[in-house]
């Protein structure tokens, strides 16, 4: 992918994390740690809110991470006067992540069209192993 910034709206990782504070992903402790020229990164330490009864990352939490990063990315990559809504999401869960570990996630666009965008998120364990790969499709709508 190109290293030229794809963002059409200004944002910093700090501002994006602040905006999440009063949402589900903020309640879960997801932080946006970096907004690069064509990607977003996030991180979250897993605690009792994030795990299955077997004390590993719950698949639904992986989808919250993916939907959040993909939606933020799609919003920032859309022109002023437009917002986005998720219309489809899928995930493949590939490796467990135990409670107490920190996951990191990187989200990149696969398609940034005028009416739809597709973003892919890779969630990794501390050892670098891929725990989940997920894609979200967002509709781009006028305000």
Automatic annotation (TrEMBL):
Any one Gene Ontology molecular-function term assigned to this protein's record: hydrolase activity
Fetch the SUPFAM superfamilies from UniProt. Answer: Thioesterase/thiol ester dehydrase-isomerase
**What keywords sit in the KW lines?**
Hydrolase
Annotated EC:
3.1.2.-
Q: Which CDD domains match?
A: PaaI_thioesterase
Q: What class of enzyme is it?
A: hydrolase
Mind telling me which Pfam families this protein's record contains?
Answer: 4HBT (PF03061)
Q: Which InterPro entries match?
A: HotDog_dom_sf (IPR029069), PAAI_dom (IPR003736), Thioestr_dom (IPR006683)
Give residue ranges for domain Thioesterase: 56-132
Tell me the protein family, please: Belongs to the thioesterase PaaI family.
State what protein this is by name. PaaI family thioesterase
From which source organism is this entry? Muricoccus vinaceus
Lineage of source species: Bacteria, Pseudomonadati, Pseudomonadota, Alphaproteobacteria, Acetobacterales
């Amino acid at each position: 992918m190109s290293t030229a910034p794809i963002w059409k709206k200004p944002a910093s990782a700090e501002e994006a994390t602040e905006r999440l504070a009063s949402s589900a992903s903020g309640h879960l402790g997801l932080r946006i740690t970096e907004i690069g020229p064509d990607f977003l990164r996030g991180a979250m330490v897993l605690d009792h809110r994030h795990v299955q009864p077997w004390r590993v990352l719950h698949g639904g939490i992986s989808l919250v991470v993916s939907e959040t990063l993909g939606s933020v990315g799609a919003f920032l990559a859309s022109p002023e006067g437009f917002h986005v809504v998720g219309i489809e999401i899928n995930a493949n869960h590939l490796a467990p992540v135990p409670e107490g570990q920190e996951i990191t996630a990187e989200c990149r666009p696969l398609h940034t069209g005028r009416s739809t965008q597709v973003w892919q998120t890779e969630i990794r364990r501390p050892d670098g192993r891929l725990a989940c790969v997920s894609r979200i499709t967002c509709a781009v709508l006028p305000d």
